[in-house]
Amino acid sequence: MRHFRPPLAALVLITGAVSYEHQPTNATHPWSERIDLPLIPVAVSMVPTTGEVAIWAAFKNDSFGVDAAGVTQTAIYNPKNGTIAHYSISHTEHDMFCPGISLDFKGRIIVSGGDTEEKTSIFDGKEWKAASDMKIPRGYQSSTTITDGRIFTVGGSFSGGIGNKDGEIYDPEADEWTLLPGCSAEPMLTNDAGGIYRSDNHGWLFAWSNGSVLQAGPSTKMHWFDTHENGSITHAGTRGNDTDGMAGMAVMYDAGKGKILTLGGAPSYNDSKATSNAHILTVHKPGEPVLVEEINNMHSARSFANAVILPDGKVFVVGGQSYPIVFTDANSSMVPELWDPKTKEFTELPKLPTPRNYHSSALLLPNATVFVGGGGLCPYACEANHLDAHIYTPPYFFESDGVTPAKRPIINHVVNPTLKIGQTLNVSLSQPVESTQKLTFSMVRMSSSTHTVNTDQRRVNVSPQAANATLFTLGLTRDAGVLLPGYWHLFAMLNGVPSEAETILVEPPMASQ
Length: 513
Hints:
Layout lengths: L11 E3 L20 E2 L6 E5 L4 E5 L15 E6 L6 E6 L10 E4 L5 E4 L7 E4 L4 E4 L10 E4 L5 E4 L13 E4 L4 E4 L16 H4 L5 E4 L3 E4 L5 E6 L5 E7 L10 E6 L4 E5 L14 E5 L8 E5 L10 E4 L5 E4 L18 E4 L4 E4 L11 E5 L5 E5 L13 E5 L18 E4 L3 E3 L3 E6 L9 E7 L2 E3 L8 E4 L1 E3 L4 E5 L10 E9 L2 E2 L3 E6 L6
Parallel strand pairs: 31-40
Antiparallel strand pairs: 1-6, 2-29, 3-4, 3-34, 4-5, 5-6, 7-8, 8-9, 9-10, 11-12, 12-13, 13-14, 15-16, 16-17, 17-18, 19-20, 20-21, 21-22, 23-24, 24-25, 25-26, 27-28, 28-29, 30-32, 32-37, 33-35, 33-38, 36-37, 38-39, 38-40
């Protein structure tokens, strides 16, 4: 690999940005002041080793182009002090617009394909590095880290030719891509009016036990991919009476119970009515049919939106269009929603300050707020370009009156923040937990977001056993398909109010597990 550390001349420090310590004063005004960025945050990812947010666009800050000489405009946002470092990356010869993104088991950001359709680049928290090329050039594909730490990808006819975008897998330790000829992309195609160019885009991929991957959408047809040897594919059923949900959302909000929430999307990528459809999928063993439950719809139809799992298990849904048309703010769904897994109902939230549609992104931050930004990146100057973001403060930051700040628990110390699958966590809190208080813990995997896709995020409930009023032992699952290797946020939840997160590294199981 080639190594690069950007020279100081390539960095532009922007002062006066809004820190994530800034919080609105009440629940009816949950949005921060606008955070001006040097580029459109089309793609974002947590940087697990630093707590910062990596952001990138295309070869320009506010537009894209084909054959753009392998350049990507990137930025690093520090949510603690609000500073932003902006620089151009050219040494990897990779325009990372429209890629697959996955965080590997060491917390490195693996970016594959896109405008430079065969390339792979890796960000390790300090520098971007060039990695081996994919066997099949692709863009608009999805990728996901699997149980042994390798990364599976499939689909992606936006770049590198149309069709035959079968699966392949990347070993970040060997820096090697391997074709999986048994993992055909053809069964997962939607009936998009744009043809195969669109119909294999943005797969809803979920890593599961023993190296398996569930493709839950956007086609109504669901499948299991097996990544062993040459790979194989098994039909997993259809998503009830749902339509194809291109550019919809799917999140594993309770991995311990195999629960996935799917939302919205449209039959075709562009110029097609979005739906407000919502379903709960339940997965058990790899290869078995997926159970599908139709639930009450969202209040708004949405395509090009984003969904973020919160520490309490609720799902924050933001942005999108009722009739998706790329590069426009028309038909914007401006009212976010919050889905409660206990009631299975959606609640409307205060209006967005800015439309967030095509090329927007959203990400959970370590202090339990949400970064929401972007939209636009037109191939020409347009009003839909949004070089900015806002921080959303969820209702759990306030008491029931919506004004009084809620008292947050504080994790004082994690004895073993690096552990193997199946081991226990030992955690102490700064204040004793009273018998009248309800204490739970949750882990949310650090994640990435682009083009509605975030295959990294998932949440696991963790039950505590008290040693005393401040010290707790947390037992973790032995299934790497549930507690996927990599970096996680650990939250303590006291009466539904989350702490700030502590960083936990879950290492892959031994080969025999």
